[in-house]
Design a protein that fits this description.
Elements (H helix, E strand, L loop, with lengths): L14 H13 L11 H4 L5 E6 L10 H14 L2 E7 L1
Parallel strand pairs: 1-2
């Protein structure tokens, strides 16, 4: 299984980065940096997306933007949305 992990935190050694690294270690240690340029090759292939989203803010709406991007990208690629984990 190949895993795409996208991190957006400015804290390179913060808790979100640590969570992402541990997830990568436990899943396949394979990270695709980006798909632009190869999206025609990977669209509608049998892939699954599980989102792990972190934020240091107590309101759920703070996740709305990133959830919309993930949902749109997953739909565009024709992949299966397996849900989300919010931390």
């Amino acid at each position: 299984m190949k895993v795409l992990v996208i991190t957006g935190s400015p804290h390179k050694k913060g808790t979100s980065a640590l969570l992402a690294e541990k997830f990568i270690e436990g899943a396949t240690k394979t990270v695709i940096d980006r798909y632009h340029g190869i999206d025609d090759l990977i669209r509608n292939t049998p892939k699954k997306v599980l989102s792990i989203i972190t934020a240091a803010y107590p309101e759920d709406w703070v996740f709305d933007g990133v959830k919309a991007v993930i949902k749109t990208t997953t739909r565009y690629l024709g992949w299966k949305d397996c849900g989300e984990i919010r931390i």
